[in-house]
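Hey, can you fold this one?
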Amino acid sequence: MKNIVIATGNAGKVKEFKEMFAGLGVSVTSLADHVSPIPDIAETGATFYENAKIKADWVYQYMQQTRGADGGGVWTLADDSGLEVDALGGAPGVLSARYSGEGANSVKNNEKLLNALSDVPDEKRTARFKCVLVLKTGINTYLSAEGVCEGRIINEIIGSNGFGYDPLFVPKGYDRTMAQLTPEEKNCISHRGAALRGLYAVMDDGGTGIVSN
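Sure. Predicted structure:
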């Protein structure tokens, strides 16, 4: 069984990854299972890919330090994801988690987003969630994939199943927010689900033996 460490302490993300890896013969743990307190890994990249790679590298190096030269055979998986709103020129983008500044959290970020779009009509509230996954499988080897979920931003918070901007985001073709969908529904259409399915294909093509038809 392959061991993959998810480079996050975000319980919501970890839950989604575990659900999506279920049945594939993969043992999934989070960074929180290996180090406490969870370090603040500086996300200095200008793109989602750069930030995901930074996090995958950091966790891989940490596992090497604690488990030996090859990290005990562990792979590290990192994602960087965020919300791009057309009316805001693509913001908050890579700054999605820190959109409201120091002390940012989901409540503050959602409040800032609603304020920023207060004068924007519904037809111009188009947006997308974007996710880039980077799987580090060796010192200098990486696999990556990207996923996108198109939709729009509504003007009130609805739903409690998701996290982050989910209560404000209605996926294209739906009349419910991402936070109103069941985990199964969300995984089928989410940016993270799409990126992971893309990663499955790359992993399978690379002969990892993890993904089977």
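Confidence is low (pLDDT under 50) at residues 209-213. Let me know if you want another pass with a different chain boundary.
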